Amino acid sequence: MNSLWYFDDVNLFSLMCPHKYNKSTHSHRFDGYKKNEFIYFEDDQANKIFLINSGKIKLGYVNDDGEEVITAILTKGEIFGEKAILGEEKRDEFAQVLENGTSVCRISSEEMLELLRQHKNFSLKIYKFIGFRFKKLERRLQLMLFKDAKTRLKEFINELAEEFGYVNKVSGYTVIRHPYTQKEIATLIGTSRPTLNILINELNDEDYLDFNRKEIILKK
């Protein structure tokens, strides 16, 4: 897995997590959460950035029809709430815990901005990350609007291959060991679990992939 704590030679965890600094050790701890707890809601004050130490976090919003729209599911090594350093005063999304034992490190937007001022290389990397996150979300929303479910699934699997995949030297296939359940994948591509199962079976029959619980073998 490619952890987002790292951008090339920049270790985000060492830079961003306050408990890594001696002066903060006495006052800092990871915040623990249980499944289904919310870390923040839409319209909450945006004054912190969060780093996932363990577990899984769901980001999303409620649309005008009262339906929940999931924009991302994040795992260990990823950050969220980053729009707090871009001038956002109120949250435009919620962050909900998906697994018991989830823990996060939080850092105030003031601390984060100070880190950005002190570390030019880090500043460039973090803004590049934010741009990548926005671009990825925009791409996913475009797929939801204009592409069929099967195309959305293929695009999502390609994203997983880039982030979690490696090439098996014997078979030449891409092996993807990912952290998502089938229910979460269905949510992220905007379809139902039964429809996802049908699509997976179709792709299996087409010899496009082999789909297991925690591993996808991409053949094309």
Describe the structure.
Pfam families: cNMP_binding (PF00027), HTH_Crp_2 (PF13545). Keywords: DNA-binding, Kinase, Transcription, Transcription regulation, Transferase. This is cAMP-binding domain of CRP or a regulatory subunit of cAMP-dependent protein kinases. This protein is α+β, with helices and mostly antiparallel strands. The radius of gyration is 18 Å and the shape is globular. The two termini are 21 Å apart. It has a 4-stranded antiparallel sheet. A 4-stranded antiparallel sheet has the order 4-9-6-7. It contains 7 helices and 14 strands. Helix content is 37%, strand content 27%. A hairpin with a 3-residue loop joins strand 13 and strand 14. The chain folds into 2 domains: 128 residues, Jelly Rolls (Sandwich); 71 residues, Winged helix-like DNA-binding domain superfamily/Winged helix DNA-binding domain (Arc Repressor Mutant, subunit A).
Q: Tell me the β content.
A: 25-35%
The overall strand count is 14
* N→C terminal distance: 21 Å
Number of domains: 2
Number of helices: 7
Helix content: 25-40%
Mean of residue pLDDT values? 85
Q: What is the CATH top level name of the largest domain?
A: Mainly Beta
Order of helices and strands: EEHHEEEEEEEEHHHEEHHEE
Radius of gyration: 18 Å
Structural class: alpha+beta
**Multimeric state of these chains?**
single chain
CATH topology (level 3) name of the largest domain = Jelly Rolls
The named CATH superfamily of the largest domain: Jelly Rolls
Largest sheet: 4 strands, antiparallel
Strand order of the largest sheet: 3-10-5-8
| Overall body shape | globular
Assigned CATH architecture of the largest domain: Sandwich
Low-confidence stretches: 1-10, 21-26
